[in-house]
Write a structure and sequence with these properties.
single chain, 13 helices, mainly alpha, two-stranded antiparallel ribbon
Length: 478
């Protein structure tokens, strides 16, 4: 029988309740020390358990961060090695191409320089020397005439001859100068050709220097990654987050294209395999259309892997070049065949749609309106084009898929690290809560039995003992 019923049947219920309460308080007073120890022991056990869980969680977070750092640096090192390798391949191709052009360039420069030297030699020719009889005539002209008119006439004739000879020499000199100027003028196109050839050489050297600067920057970043610096880790982590969201966005677009492709071929597949047949809760036609799309995506992955655009399958990347080329042609052939099948299914879809329109129009008596539609071929061509192009477009899903897979590991590691840190903090907070809750329960326990404690304190004071009554063990003491 419950205690409340027994008290209710007593002749003095109120007095009985008072007696029961006093009995409980006295029992709690005498069990005070042990109760305090029990409460504090329980709170201490919960506190230490949660603290141990928080410490274990922090250690797990630390190991996870170290693992994430190793994976991030390894992925960054691999990506940087691929970039540096491609840059060296580009420089190798550029240098080989430029070196192959060096003999031709050298020959052209030699020819132009030879022409310039020939024109320069022609332009440096001096005018012809005066005739040998001129000194003799000068000697005769210096003979004094002494007033003889005959000698004066002879000397005047000699003077006139000299003037004519001087004029003729001047005209010859001017013609020679004009010829030299013409040769100098003819040198200008050759100078321009030489300047153009040297400009090409300068452009190629400048491009090579720019590529070497790019390689130097990549090598510096690679060295930072190899050293495992915090700056390299931050850069790689930020780059992984950006690549993750961009790849997710591109994959969402590809999923939309795959959905359109699915609806494009699902209807004619229902006519081929039966629209009412089910496998579980799925229609066989939908499963067949989905399988075709997945096979196309798989062929696209194998094609990109064979072309070495991606590195999702190391086995394909390790194949010999002969077998890799064979695999490229095989996957491309399968992909072209599946694209042709989809184009045929799209054409079949348009035929089925026209049949339904014709049937509904015949039921309404409007057959001529449907038969008179001359623009049906536009819709048919558009659907066939989409059915043929979409499989090739889905081929490029391999590139964002590889980026998504590699960056997903980093994103999951960072997210898990934040979760573990939050869990450790939560466990610590709960541990502190249970610790102070135990102390609060001890104080509440003493509040319930405050009357015996007060009486004990008064008795101790009256006896002159001056000591406080024995307190229960505190949390720190236990």
């Amino acid at each position: 029988m419950p205690l409340a019923d027994l008290i209710a049947k007593s002749p003095y219920p109120a007095m009985t309740w008072v007696f029961v309460v006093l009995l409980v308080i006295l029992s709690m007073y005498f069990a005070r020390v042990h109760a305090h120890r029990a409460i504090l022991s329980l709170s201490r056990a919960l506190y230490r358990t949660l603290r141990l869980g928080a410490a274990s969680t922090l250690r797990a977070e630390h190991r996870l961060l170290l693992r994430n750092r190793e994976v991030l640096l390894a992925a960054g090192r691999e990506a940087k090695e691929r970039i540096i390798e491609r840059e060296f391949e580009r420089i190798d191709g550029s240098v080989r191409r430029d070196i192959s052009e060096c003999p031709s360039l050298n020959r052209r420069l030699t020819e132009e320089v030879t022409r310039i030297e020939e024109d320069h030699q022609k332009s440096t020719e001096v005018p012809p020397a005066p005739p040998g009889w001129v000194p003799a005539v000068n000697a005769v002209a210096e003979i004094p005439s002494k007033g003889d008119p005959m000698v004066a006439n002879i000397l005047e004739g000699i003077h006139d001859s000299l003037v004519k000879a001087q004029e003729q020499a001047t005209q010859d000199y001017r013609k020679s100068v004009q010829v030299r100027h013409d040769h100098l003028k003819s040198m200008m196109p050759h100078w321009r050709n030489v300047a153009q050839l040297l400009g090409q050489v300068d452009h190629k050297v400048t491009d090579l220097l720019q590529r070497t600067q790019i390689i130097d920057r990549h090598i510096d970043e690679y060295e930072n990654i190899m050293r495992g610096s915090d700056r390299a880790e931050r850069m790689l982590s930020s780059s992984s987050l950006v690549q993750f969201f961009i790849a997710a966005f591109v994959l969402a677009i590809a999923a939309g294209g795959a959905m359109i492709n699915f609806h494009l071929i699902a209807r004619p597949m229902a006519e081929m395999v039966g629209g009412n047949n089910l496998i579980g809760a799925w229609k066989i036609a939908d499963i067949a259309a989905l399988v075709i799309i997945l096979v196309e995506i798989s062929m696209g992955l194998f094609l990109m892997e064979s072309l070495r655009f991606t590195r999702l399958f190391p086995v394909i990347g390790a194949l010999a070049d002969k077998w890799r080329v064979i695999m490229i042609w095989v996957t491309l052939g399968f992909l072209t065949g599946l694209a042709s099948i989809e184009a045929g299914l799209a054409f079949m879809r348009e035929i089925l749609l026209q049949d339904e329109l014709l049937l509904s129009a015949s039921l309404r008596g409007e057959t001529d309106a449907v038969l008179g539609n001359d623009f049906v071929w536009i819709t048919t061509a558009a659907q066939m084009g989409m059915g043929f192009i979409l499989p090739f477009a889905l081929t490029f899903v391999a590139i964002p898929l590889e980026t998504f897979v590699h960056s997903l590991r980093t994103v999951m590691g960072v997210t898990t690290g934040f979760f573990l840190r939050g869990l450790a903090m939560t466990l610590r907070l709960f541990g502190l809560g249970f610790r102070y809750l135990g102390e609060a329960m001890v104080n509440i326990y003493d509040i319930v039995i405050f009357l015996p404690l007060w009486l004990e304190d008064r008795v101790k004071t009256h006896l002159g003992n001056g000591r406080r009554p024995a307190q229960g063990p505190s949390f720190r003491e236990t």
